[in-house]
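Long-time lurker. I teach an intro course on protein structure, and each term I like to show students one example going from raw sequence to a predicted 3D structure in token notation. This year I'd like something fresh instead of my usual example. Would anyone be willing to generate the tokens for the chain below so I can use it in lecture? Attribution to the forum is fine with me.
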Amino acid sequence: MDATLNHTTLDRMQFIDASSAVLPQACIGCKGFSGRFLDTGLDIDYYGVVYFCDVCLISIIMRLGYIPVDQREALQFECQDLQKQLNALIEENRKLRDAINLLTDLRDSNNSDSGGDTDVPIHKKPEPKSSPSKGNSSRKAGSSKQADEQGSTDVLNDDDITKLFD
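-- Reply from a regular --
Happy to contribute to a lecture. Here you go:
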């Protein structure tokens, strides 16, 4: 059987209302008998005319990789909207890169004028105090002598705690 369609094959296909269909008066796919049919123009002995309902025809077309016109148009509008968003983001990205380049140039020119390092830390942690030797790190039970070590720097005193709740 030749799989190519010629004009006579296409000319014999037409959409008809189910009420005007001849035997078997049903879709060959789902056996439905209402709505609109595609009359293929094929009349098979001992069966009758081959019809496809709208639902089965759309399923066949979608399995072939085609999409309905309304979905295609919706996807085109969505694609246009996404393209506009992409263009806006590209422009925003360009402006941000320009700003970063300007700030980098300013930093480099300030550092070259002052002769300083180009990598200046924003936040510097305090240097830890020298730790006492193991022998002096803890008080012996019953000893009246206080330890000479300084406490942790991250502990707040009473005044600092009171300020937190004010």
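Some talking points for your students: The chain is about 40% helix and 10% strand. Confidence is low (pLDDT under 50) at residues 134-139.
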